[in-house]
Amino acid sequence: MPAPDTRLWSIDTPNTSYVVAVDDHDRLRGLHWGPRLSAEQALALLELPESPFRPVIGREPRYDLSTGSAFQYGHNGLQVRFADGTRDLELAFTEAVEADGDLAFVFTDRHYPLEVRTRYRTHPDSDVIERTLELRNSGTEPIEVVRADSATWVVPGLDEPRLSQLHGEWGAETQLTRTTIPYGETVIGSRRGITGHQSNPWVAVDDGTATETAGPVWSTALAWSGTWRITVEKGPTGSVTVSAGFGHDPIAIRLDGGATLETPVAAGLHTAHGFAAAASAWHDYALAHVLPHPGEVRPVLYNSWEATEFDFTAEDQMRLADRAAAMGCELFVMDDGWFGARVNDRAGLGDWTPNPDRFPDGLGPLIKHVHGLGMRFGIWVEPEMVNPDSDLYRAHPDWVYHQPHRRRSEVRQQLVLNLARRDVADHIHARLDELLSGNEIDFVKWDMNRPFTEAGWPGDEDPDRLWFDHTRNLYAILDRLRADHPSLRIESCSSGGGRVDFGILRRTDQVWTSDNTDAVDRIAIQDGFAQVYPARVMGAWVTDSPNPLTRREVPLDFRFHVAMAGVLAVGGDLRIWSDEEQARGAELVADYKRVRPTVQLGRRRPLRAGNVTGVQYDRGDTTVVLAWRKARDFAYPDPLLKLHVDRDARYREVRSGRVHHGAILASHGLELGLAPADYASAMIELTREP
């Protein structure tokens, strides 16, 4: 790291450097984000002719800490309003503090009692840089925080910068798009109270020429599960900054005297080797520094929802469990409809006790039956919601988000509980803790099926804080439950992929990717998901054909092979599967279990050749190829699929025993042997010969 008396610092990772400097006006500027520099090279940045220390009105500022102040006409990552109405900040640099792998820059306002800390953290095994912002009110009067982005990343100048993002909606999440960045500000985010189906808090920037395997890529991911915003700003000469943070306009949060606000992590990553390398780096980061049990491989689960929906008894669940166990499933999850008066979606949410008609003896007999089959037992809950037709709502109608003199809009006949309230959060924790303590439950599917509406908190002096405290209290409940029930594993669900981010993944073991289980649609959904999140957390179900949502008919092998690219699960109505389907399903489950460590913990590489696409996973000496062809054009033979392998090695197919030269696999490709019919697929396992 360069000498601190230059007021220049380099945040170094194994392969990259992020260099910042404090200028003569105490502004923190970004000078370099790219390949790693030596200390001497970093200092040479100060000699560049286009010096960042000569501010010219109208020039593009490249601030790492972008504050609302004089001449700052672009996006401001930090904006406040003091008690007397003053909004501009004038920060003075105080010190740089290094401790335990962190580097923090401390600034104080020249007049008002506000301290600002920008903090960076790196890990010796990752090129990801974690960035947070901390605000402390050292006075007595409250300060209104209008905007507090966790990071503003300064990207090097690019001729034709391009933006990659994940857009979508319910049933069509994580659709990857790449577009040229326009001049001005491009804003994506969520105002829904959750991460959202429509956008995901990740973006990537490249120079317009990057490919899967080559070219510089800069990306950021925000670890936050509530409302959020990412602003990508392109200046007149092509400079780009990416500012990421929680919250949305026009809400603000009050910072009382003596209080501290710490923002969630915005993680940044640079690679010189294309989009696939960036995705792999994010996956490695998630496994090493985000997930609570990164080395575990996730079990093959069976979920009962699409088989029964609300129409079932304990005996029905037991019969499904019998068939799931026979197929090789390792975890049986009973979905919605087991509690309170929940015989449809109009009642019962909030009353987390077993339905006495369906479970007269409680959950114990079903759980004992499932455990006796050698499977773990899981259960569905939606703790942040309540039906107006419930005992909880009748007792506490004030516990939901609402505004005076406004309707309480329902979605799926349910309202959102005000989890920002301490009494509500304590109640939810107590009911779930009671459920888990009284039953041998191994797994919880935590759902959240609707966004906020009429998001008010009548009588509270700082009602906007609900947008922040809801998520904070959700995290606190999950943390407490995991601490008190260490063997519990949790899946995050929000009408499918409505809450997928590194914040929720720090507290859960996997996520439900989408309510759309059509294998053809899932190829694109899973490809977008994999840009940042690893296969280890990507729940993927095999369901019935025709698909319940799209009505598309797809062969069983194709459905399984697409789902095998993540955490395989079965969600079809096994009561109507033929004996042949049941037997073939068992064979495919066994295949997946054999390759599961490679898929869930290995390195992912996308594959494409003509109309054949797929993924390759590598771990140690094992390579797993999953490939699909939706349709065959003009009876042409399928192209060979080029693999990413060691050219000097040999690879043996586990099933056939055939040996391949790495040079041939890399230069010409692998013959997949796909069936001539539409929706053909294959899974091929290769081992590297010693």
Automatic annotation (TrEMBL):
User: Per the database record, which ranges form the Glycosyl hydrolase family 36 C-terminal domain?
Assistant: 620-686
> Do you know which CDD domains this protein is assigned to?
GH36
- According to its UniProt record, the EC number is 3.2.1.22
Q: Where is the Glycosyl hydrolase family 36 N-terminal domain?
A: 28-255
Q: Give the keywords, sorted.
A: Glycosidase, Hydrolase
Q: Which domain of life is it from?
A: Bacteria
Could you tell me what reaction this enzyme catalyses?
Hydrolysis of terminal, non-reducing alpha-D-galactose residues in alpha-D-galactosides, including galactose oligosaccharides, galactomannans and galactolipids
Task: Provide the family line.
Answer: Belongs to the glycosyl hydrolase.
Q: What is this protein called?
A: Alpha-galactosidase
Q: What is the lineage of its organism?
A: Bacteria, Bacillati, Actinomycetota, Actinomycetes, Glycomycetales
